[in-house]
Amino acid sequence: MAFQFVTVLALVAAVSAGVLPVQQVYHAAAPAQLAVAHAPVAVAHAQPILAKADDEYDPHPQYKFGYDVQDAISGDTKSQVEERDGDVVHGEYSLIDADGFKRVVQYTSDPINGFNAVVNRIPLEHQLKTVVKTVAPVAVAPLPIAYHQHH
User: What angle do CA 64, 68, 70 make, to 5 degrees?
Assistant: First the structure.
């Protein structure tokens, strides 16, 4: 096991020092030639990554979507709607924060103004659950009494 650990560390050190070439994955460069005088080195060559043609490019994308979650068991409540027309996006999402407020975020994004969001927090007093604290009775067992005789 120690031999494997040392071998892996030696390989990492060789790559870090530049003794072993490591090709970048994001371009297809010509294979590097490495001459080592003392020992032959095997060099693995990565296959070039081919990008998919942009034949499905939409110059003016449009969509609308939305969802709403109302889970009575977990109490999870959230929703979102969004609409896109070209480079302009409008949307809103909401969720219930742990402190009992509903967070509503309205956002827009466009090439001129960038991304902008307005966040509102609304108290949910009518939806707050009342927590009733009760004290459970504790069973008390009598402690054994130790009798000591003094001589």
Answer: 180
